[in-house]
Amino acid sequence: MKITSAEFVISNTDVLKCPNSKLPEYAFIGRSNVGKSSLINNLTGKKKLAMVSGKPGKTRLINHFLINKNWHLVDLPGYGYAKVSKTEKKKFQRFIESYFEKRHQLVNAFVLVDLRHEPQPLDLEFMQWLGVNAIPFSIIFTKADKLKPKAAEKNLATYQEQLLTHWEELPPYFVTSSQTGQGKEDVLNYIDNINQS
Ligand code: GDP
What we know:
- With 197 residues, the protein is an alpha/beta fold.
- It is 34% helix and 21% strand.
- It has a single domain, classed as P-loop containing nucleotide triphosphate hydrolases (Rossmann fold).
- The chain has helices at residues 36-44, 86-102, 121-132, 149-164, 184-196; strands at 6-12, 25-30, 62-67, 71-75, 106-114, 137-142, 173-175.
């Protein structure tokens, strides 16, 4: 798929105020600093569509972008920001869960994971929650350019092993780099194929 238009639609703190639209939507979510904004900008070919920031976890907005006038790309806030209280974390968790529970337009969630790191309990738990709630998801491994191919392969294998202790089947996954554009076509084609079906 070629992205010919990508427009910012609206930012919300309340899921009930998200666009009342029947367009299919694809959500992007992951730990703060995982490279979500960079990936969104790389996928859409717009350098400043999503805000790349050095200060993770500050905003808790659900951002809708209209792509090619026929689907929504949703930028969900990053989770796992260390410097917040337990109460804040719970509140945030409920906020994210309400998005997934209420947005019936959601077709697929892309869970972003930094390929450099060991599988993190928070990410695994989140995927588990998506699975239990029958929310289709795929994994996008980010920052692949930061690793040598051998190390990338090793980390990927470790991740898959971990996932297979929880799941019978692996979810679809993509290895990407916003720096080199690796994986971009695969993610876009994946979305396109679902939209066409
Ligand atoms: P977000 O908090 O998940 O939206 O993450 P950002 O997109 O703001 O990225 C966090 C940091 O990682 C920034 O310094 C980015 O420049 C860097 N980054 C993001 N993606 C990549 C990538 O694919 N390769 C490299 N080398 N750096 C990346």
